[in-house]
Amino acid sequence: MAVKIRLKKMGRSHRPFFRVCAMDVRSPRDGRVIEELGTYDPMVPETDARAILNGERISYWLGVGAQPSPKVGTLIKKYGAEGSHLEAQAEAIGRLGDRRASAIESARAAASSVKMPDVTKPSEDPAPAEGEATADAPKAEGEEAKTDDAAPAAEEAKAEAPAAEDKPAEAATEEKKAE
């Protein structure tokens, strides 16, 4: 099987992103890959941070006869296992990481200033705090009192209902006797 190391286009229109892949020569540009070997993002502002390659695996594929495409060949010369721009790449990735870290921190600060309501499941909090326990206790007692008041009233209603049913039956029997 003839293998090429080439770019597989990802991303979207006007925002390309590529994966460096080992692919069969006959497969289409964005087709099935044998192995993904790295990424190439031409939109990254730091030129040396655009390509991130797995040099060990690229060396393996080159060793078994895979042919790189012209663009991938240039990337391998610069950022491969023995690339000429590896130190510059490490510095650029560090600078880019610092920018991203500061952007993430500022986003977190902005998010923390906006207070979102805390929605938690009751099962997540196994033991309520002391203030919550005292606040819930009167409510619970009030609910018990309501159910205690409702229970005798319900029992009285049940007791009266059969008695009311018995009276019409007795009246009906008395009427039959009178006839």
TrEMBL record:
GO cellular component terms given for this protein: cytoplasm; small ribosomal subunit
Biased composition (Basic and acidic residues): 138-179
Gene Ontology terms for molecular function: structural constituent of ribosome
Biased composition (Low complexity): 103-113
Region of interest called Disordered, as start-end residue ranges on this chain: 99-179
Keyword check for Hydrolase: no
Superkingdom of source: Bacteria
NCBIfam families in the cross-refs: S16
Protein family: Belongs to the bacterial ribosomal protein bS16 family.
Name of this chain's protein: Small ribosomal subunit protein bS16
Organism in which the protein naturally occurs: Mariniblastus fucicola
